[in-house]
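Hi W., the iron/sulfur cluster complex you wanted:
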Amino acid sequence: MTNPASAKTVHIETFGCQMNEYDSELIRAILRKEGFAFTEDKERADIVLMNTCAVRENAHNRVYGHLAELKAIKKQRPLIVGVLGCMAQNLKKELTETEPIVDVLVGPDAYRQLPNLLNRAIESQEQGFLQKVIAVDLSEYETYEDILPERAEGVNAWIAIMRGCDNFCTFCVVPYTRGRERSRDPQGVIREAEQLIAQGFKQITLLGQNVNSYRFGDWDFARLITAVANLPGIERVRFTSPHPKDFPPALLDAVAGHPKICKHIHLPLQSGNDRILDLMNRTYTRREYLALVEEIRRRNPEIALTTDIICGFCSETEDEFLDTYRTVEAVGYHSAFIFKYSERKNTIAARKYRDDVPDAVKADRVARLVDLQKRMSLRKNRELLGRTVEVLVEGDAKRSPSQWMGRTDGNITVVWEKDGLETKPGDLVPILIQDASATTLFGQPVIRGGF
Ligand code: SF4
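Structure:
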């Protein structure tokens, strides 16, 4: 039988988190092996796949917006439309019943089946059937261990070391869309990291929905990140996203002390009020969270902290919001992702609680917190004025090709004029910080070897 894929070109659009970016790289590798080709231009694609996110309302709405665009293309010519990832998993019924243009629905644990499913969709379209092809079973074991993702060239590469989540925060769909926690064999992770270093990547980010709960036999996350950071040729190792409950002393020591592990911890707070934290099932109190912050800073005050916060969770009062506000003031994050609570279908919160904080109140709380965070970010960034920091060059600055853009160890963006020296992406450059906004540091290179 001829492979219907042989002449088919795929366009992939990715929404949501870094895990989805990584999964799109996996999907490219799986499809490439089976003869599919790729295009960046969806107008020229035979197949458009949307790798979706169900965590935030914004990403969810963007997917529906793109589906409307694809509807117009599909009226003019044959096109296979696939919805992959968390929305496919979480909204399969809704997408099956209300979106006739969706031909293929594939959840995060079924990507190995994608070539066959696409071939079936192509065949049924060629034969004039309108039949959806669906694979959304969750697996207790799938880690795509043997598949090397097809990565774009660059400075940073991601490695997913674990998948799924067992925490069941009440607002979150991930445990339902990505299933139970499972960790990869550490030897496979280390081999993949060695290959990336050999390909020229300077920074590796270890990824997982709950990355620091990694466990494989007697390997925990502290052991794994230290092993990756010890590999010859690596410059920086990062990790995301951790849960505050999984920071044993060995991990704090590794982050604080290992020269190749970035001095940055993303520590999702979500709320600074104990009643709301309990309703969210976050399993820590404000006091425990602040004690962890203290432990981190006691080991190394240079570690930059960032966070995620939800405003207006079910039944949150003004006083409870103010507890969050005061916690943000007390911690002094470098930056924060601040969101209005939006109910996600099939979560515990959607089933048990009422989404009863008015939208205007949520928006007002977000605005106040964003305003506070901007001032705190500016203050933190100004602390670096006059200091020389090591910056990993990522590429041209967004606003001007005559400037470089890179990041500090603490993940703060730095911009500087190109200096005529032979700087290139992937270099580590010492930069004297001369100016700071809330989001960006500005400076100039100091003479090489000047640390
Ligand atoms: S830790 Fe909580 S917020 Fe994070 S993925 Fe798991 S359930 Fe979702």
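The CA atoms of residues 403 and 416 lie 5 Å apart.

W.
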